């Protein structure tokens, strides 16, 4: 899953980036409202962490512009601890949730996971397809109750397909959502990871739709 962080305080921005990358997310970091608005308008993100007190363009204006442009990605705003007015203004502008500073990393990650799940229509923290189970809290994958060890990128790809179970996902969409903006998009690593996942979970777990992309279906559906 790919997340945009818009935070002008250098230490906090880098801390958030490191924390979310450690949790398995592909991260782009913008340091002011103008850059944040541009990235959010031109790139595809599964969620955004947006500070409200930004230089160039403030966070509320950035958020309002995204929503008027039809951008629907979940947005988690960062607010001052006791600023109830910021919380209300953020929610009214189209934010999906908020975290007050200072915050615990675990809370931010949990709220982000929940936003991404709900945006893709998944209420549970456990994603399933047949006997395959992926726990978004622990990062563990099992098949028929047996643990399956995946690399970080294999996990990201499987997680994205499970979040969009039953839909055809193009190679371009996968690249846009599991890598940051600096990734070489001419790379054939998606095909390599799909092959590896099939070897670990079964040849029929991911279907190639020629000319369109990949699909992960639920055999029990």
From TrEMBL:
GO molecular-function terms, A-Z: phosphorelay response regulator activity; transcription cis-regulatory region binding
Superkingdom classification of source: Bacteria
Transmembrane segments: none
GO BP of this protein: regulation of DNA-templated transcription
Coiled-coil portions: none
One family name in Pfam for this protein: Trans_reg_C
Keyword Phosphoprotein appears in the UniProt entry: yes
Organism: Sphingomonas faeni
Modified residues (4-aspartylphosphate): 51
Residue ranges of the annotated DNA-binding region, renumbered to this chain: 124-218
Domain spans labelled Response regulatory: 2-116
Keywords: DNA-binding, Phosphoprotein, Transcription, Transcription regulation, Two-component regulatory system
Database matches in InterPro entries: CheY-like_superfamily (IPR011006), OmpR/PhoB-type_DNA-bd (IPR001867), Sig_transdc_resp-reg_C-effctor (IPR016032), Sig_transdc_resp-reg_receiver (IPR001789), WalR-like (IPR039420), WH-like_DNA-bd_sf (IPR036388)
SUPFAM superfamilies registered for this protein in UniProt: C-terminal effector domain of the bipartite response regulators, CheY-like
One Gene Ontology term, aspect cellular component: cytosol
Designated name of the protein: Winged helix family two component transcriptional regulator
Domain OmpR/PhoB-type: 124-218
Record has Nuclease as a keyword: no
